[in-house]
Amino acid sequence: METTTGDAVDVEALLVSAYRFNFFEQLFQTNLWSADRSWTRKLSYAMKHFVDWQIDMFRRRSDREGENIVHIMKDGIFKALKHEANQAKTSADNLKNEKDATTLENVAPATAWHEAVTQAMVDLWVIWDHFVNQLEGQALPPRARQVVNVLIIGILFLNQLAGRPGEWTFLTAAYVRETISAFANDVVKSFPLCFLICKKYKNCKKYGNLGKWLAEGTQAALMLYMGLPGKRTPWLLEPALEKAVAKSEKASVVGIASLLHGFQRSVLSEWSSLTPTGVRKHIHTEADDTRMAKKALEFVNEFERHLGSTGKKYYVTRNPKSDARKQQLLFEKFMGVPAEWPSKEEIDKRRRPYEEVIAKTAHAEEDDEEAEDEEGELEDGGEAEVEDLGLKRKRKE
């Protein structure tokens, strides 16, 4: 059957041919299309929506034969695949939950986090002093740049609620420097917390801008980090390797998960090593045992005489400031007061030779791929735009 017109594919003919030659049935039987694979589930959802759209096209032209064929594909093949995929996902989620529970049982205590972050700040200062003062502004070589990346990622993710790695890769150094400087110069402190605004992140289309609270010690560490010589990209997180710099045209390419793992191997090796998602799970798990915020909202809903869902949807406002405030409260509730930038006396007491800092900081692959976010296709069962195959429709899971 002819399936092309010029350079364009005749999608309807292609679907009918695929059905008549049992293409999809054979594909689903291969290991390539195993329901255990998360990308398979995602692609099957996209194909299902594409088939729904194609059915509409057949219906508009009153093409009953084409419509019936595609309906059979949808109701038979895709329904069976979705059931199989859901079973595989449930099984995988259960195994993952057991593994995570074991990991979180051996998380380092808050005091160990605080100690590790404080030492990282001192080590960061040692490297800054070595290149800025002793070598008079000589650019950092790749190994030194990798070490400072390990240190700053450890500070970012263990000294406040940093969130997802992707929320940091679009931030520019100029914006972060300007924000921290403006907060420092605001004598009145119209808002008591320093925070960044992330405009690009997962779910940004649904939730809007996201505030990122920065603890005072983290602010100082970032300013020192951004002041290191030899910067080649506009991003906050500066890649160490040339191949990563070459890939950083649209966003910073640094393997945050690998860098965080390297930090924990260096200073917290006796405890579980957490990924960025693991850190989030730790805080979520701790917060799940606290019912105070939920109870307070229930009281408000009671005297306002409306449902809890109504109060949350229409009356609880959120903005980057409220994000920052909640992050500070949660972190201090479960992990204690963040580490402050060490004093001169503490730096003198803790400082190690530059060569020792470089040698004792674990290596990390900074251009590796980040671990997949585990929230699935959609967050909280909400709506998401489907842009696969040139379509833009809304769906609900």
Can you tell me about this structure?
The protein has 17 helices and 6 strands. With 397 residues, it is mainly alpha-helical. The strands form 3 sheets. A two-stranded antiparallel sheet has the order 1-2. Strands 3-4 form a two-stranded antiparallel sheet. A two-stranded antiparallel sheet has the order 5-6. It is globular, with a radius of gyration of 26 Å. The N terminus and C terminus are likely disordered.
Q: What is this structure, in a nutshell?
A:
This protein is mainly α.
Please describe the structure with a list of short key phrases separated by commas or semicolons.
two-stranded antiparallel ribbon; 17 helices; 6 strands; disordered C terminus; mainly alpha; 397 residues
Placed side by side, the strands forming the largest sheet appear as 1-2
User: What general outline do the C-alpha atoms trace?
Assistant: globular
Binned strand content: 5-15%
DSSP, total strands: 6
Helix residue percentage: 55-70%
Q: With helices defined by DSSP (H or I, 4 residues minimum), what is the helix count? A: 17
Poorly predicted runs: 1-6, 369-397
Compute the gyration radius: what is it?
A: 26 Å
- Give the end-to-end Cα distance, rounded to a whole number of Å: 36 Å
* Overall SS class: mainly alpha
